[in-house]
Amino acid sequence: GADLSGVVSGGITGTPASLPAGWHLSPDGSLVPYEAALSPVFDAPVSTGDGFTVNVTNYDGAFTWGATATGGGVSIDGSGLVTVTGLDPGAGSTVTVTTTRTGYHDGAATVGGTAITGAALTPEFDAPVSTADGFTVNVSNYNSDFTWPAPTVTEGGTATAGTADGSVLPITVTDLAPGQSADLTVTTTRTGYHDGTATVGGAALDAALTPAFDAPVSTADGFTVNVTNYNSDFTWPAPTVTEDGTATAGTADGSVLPITVTDLAPGQSADLTVTTTRTWHAGGAATVTGTAITGAALTPTFDAPVSTADGFTVNVTNYNSDYTWPAPTVTAGTATVGTADGSVLPITVTDLAPGQSADLTVTTTRTGYHDGTATVSASALPNHTVTFDKINGTGSMSPQVANVPTALTANAFTPPAGGYSFKEWTTEVGGGGDAYADGAEYAFDDDVTLYAQW
What we know:
By secondary structure, this protein is mostly beta strands. The protein is 0% helix and 41% strand. The protein has strands at 8-9, 12-13, 23-25, 31-33, 46-48, 51-55, 64-69, 73-76, 81-85, 92-100, 107-114, 129-131, 134-139, 152-153, 158-161, 169-174, 181-188, 196-203, 217-219, 222-227, 240-241, 246-249, 257-262, 269-276, 284-291, 306-308, 311-316, 329-330, 334-337, 345-350, 357-364, 372-379, 384-389, 400-402, 406-407, 424-426, 435-436, 441-442, 448-453. The chain has a five-stranded mixed β-sheet, with no helix packed on it. It starts with 7 loop residues before the first strand and ends with a strand. 25% of the residues are buried. Mean pLDDT is 93; it is low at 1-15.
């Protein structure tokens, strides 16, 4: 080594002021260079459940060894085994190992490793179930610790995952044509685990046979209709009908299957539904509406109206309590229905002026029957006038007007001179015709002049 006795620092001989780079003082005071660094050398890392191990192959116990890691915890033992722990499955970490020793440059090297990656979760399926436009299938080993990306399906179908229930994840494939097949692929992912994938094939049911009908024909208690595309390769369950009707399928003749609906009221409508089934085919269904024959209308009939002072009365002569009789209408006045007696229903029209006419309309209704209607016209009694003639008397009397039997106005004429007194009224000047006492009742069924007889 070099003799540093001639190096002066701070005016003191024998004390080194500075050392050349890469050199150091030996114990005997000689200036010597640093020895080369010991750079760690590694073998292949071995993954573990939560990290990895790696051996330093040039480990030397004369050096001081240190280690740091970008993830997890790290240690190095006296044999040079580096151990990393605390990583998630599949997570990685970079370890830096350092060496130091007096008289040696510092050494360092890095090595990367990864914790064991978990095994893939490969989806498992139960048997697909075909539907009219695709199929349904359940994943039977669903695990919420894994991510389940949206499933994919071939052939233009649409795959929709439902809501998992425990280990079961339902998936529905739609938008397939009848009988069309498609492959459904389901994948799983999870950090630190291999991706899982599995594919299952399914198919939509073959096309349904949708019943076709001809025109329903009404009957007294229902209707008949023919299925026009009957096919014996399909099963035809018993048809159903609404409104408490009864549907009965007859015997098919070629492609025609007759069906009869009964137990409907007159005019009642009902919906008949016919279905078809067949293995590997979608279910078919169609509905047709028919109506039982509507009963004939009950048209009201009347007897002869009888005029009254302010209207008229008339009887419906074919009243039937099986029908509903809405309130009658009248073009003038007020119509009032009385209490039916057998087949007779009395109706009274009031509030007409003397001689005024009106049209009375009566209707009938009944479920399953046509509505009936009829109109009768009549008028109130007209007014008549009685004119009083004094003959030889004096004074005046106003004419009397009425349209019902009314007492005649009392005589107000003064008898002729000569001791005369009122005797009676007559319809002829000379005393002939009909005679009426003073104040007697007159029918007022005609205009008349009454002559005073003295």
